[in-house]
Design goal:
With 311 residues, this protein is of the alpha/beta class. Strands 9-8-7-10-11-13-12 form a 7-stranded mixed β-sheet, with helices on both faces. Strand 8, helix 5 and strand 9 form a beta-alpha-beta unit. 28% of the residues are buried.
């Protein structure tokens, strides 16, 4: 599988070879792209990645990339910020459309200088850092270790000091953050999950975070992410007492022109909590109905028998 952009090329093979085979492939690629016909391609960074599904499932969530030639990272500018990107970190490929998407997300967050923004599945920290100068603090949560290192470096390079990035699973990190900031904190979140959508435990953790009143959900494939949106908006029930969200705005950005794919952003606002009076009225109505039914059942029926006449 060959994946390429303006600056970066990654060769990925579905097997785990011996080390001498890896060294041989690296030498062959170096020769072809520095001395051979590939020199004209202008490639500035190249990695070799061997991927074996069975091997990957039995190890940690890290992958082994072999640097072939050029820079070890690629660099992009977005919304006036500079970003370093590692080979396994996620970064949008269409800068113009990405700036439009991220600007919309920033507007929808409606943050203030007292806001704390949670960037869930933050990648290299692009959305969090774009919001950092407008808020009290931004916190990015990401499972990919290389992406977290990039995000920390990007904050440092852009002179941003109110950003924190945590490597871990969102469902494990979110409850800790809620306890740390308390219920009175003005929390806003952006959830930009992988193509398949957010896992149910992540959705549950978000819904249980009662201080979180506004959420921007981003999907690169709404078909696969629709279950996540449904779970986020589902009202309380016997299995989940958490109050859900209500969709307010949706926008589609043509991130991949001339293809059927697009990026979708959705603004979700927390539904108001049910009032105690609603439960009281419902209880009173139920009680009244039950009492009326009971009275009606116990009320003696009029006798239809004819009394004998007195002599």
């Amino acid at each position: 599988l060959l994946q390429c952009s303006d600056l970066f090329v990654e060769f990925s093979f579905c097997l785990v070879p011996l080390q001498e085979d890896v060294d041989g492939e690296i030498r062959a690629l170096q020769q072809y792209f520095t001395e051979g016909a590939g020199k004209a391609s202008g490639i500035t960074s190249m990695y070799l990645h061997f991927d074996n599904a069975r091997y990957r499932r039995s190890t940690k969530l890290t992958v082994d990339y072999h640097h072939v030639l050029g820079e070890k990272h690629i660099y992009e500018s977005l919304l006036g910020l500079n970003f370093r990107i590692s080979p396994s970190a996620f970064f949008q490929v269409n800068n113009g459309a990405t700036e439009l998407l991220y600007s919309t997300i920033c507007d929808w967050c409606r943050v203030t200088e007292n806001s704390v923004v949670l960037d869930i599945c933050c990648g290299t920290g692009t959305i969090a850092l774009a919001l950092a100068k407008k808020v009290k603090k931004v916190i990015g949560i990401e499972l990919c270790e290389q992406a977290v290192e990039d995000a920390k470096k990007n904050a440092e390079e852009n002179g941003i000091t109110n950003a924190e990035f945590i490597c871990g699973r969102a469902e494990h990190v979110l409850p800790t953050l809620v306890k740390r900031f308390g219920r009175r904190t003005e929390l806003v979140a952006v959830l930009d999950p992988p193509r398949a959508g957010a896992l149910p435990p992540v959705i549950t953790a978000i819904k249980k975070c009662s201080a979180l009143k506004r959420l921007v959900f981003v999907a690169c494939d709404l078909n696969q992410s629709k279950d996540s949106v449904v779970r986020l908006c589902r009202p309380p029930n016997s299995h989940d007492y958490s109050i859900g969200f209500k969709p307010e705005h949706v926008v589609m950005v043509d991130m991949f022109p001339q293809t059927p794919h697009c990026e979708v952003a959705m603004l979700l606002n927390r539904l108001p909590a049910p009032k105690l009076s609603d439960f009281v009225k419902k209880t009173d109505t139920t009680t009244s109905t039950a009492t009326a039914s009971s009275t009606q059942a116990e009320e003696p029926k009029e006798s239809t028998e004819t009394k004998p006449e007195e002599p």
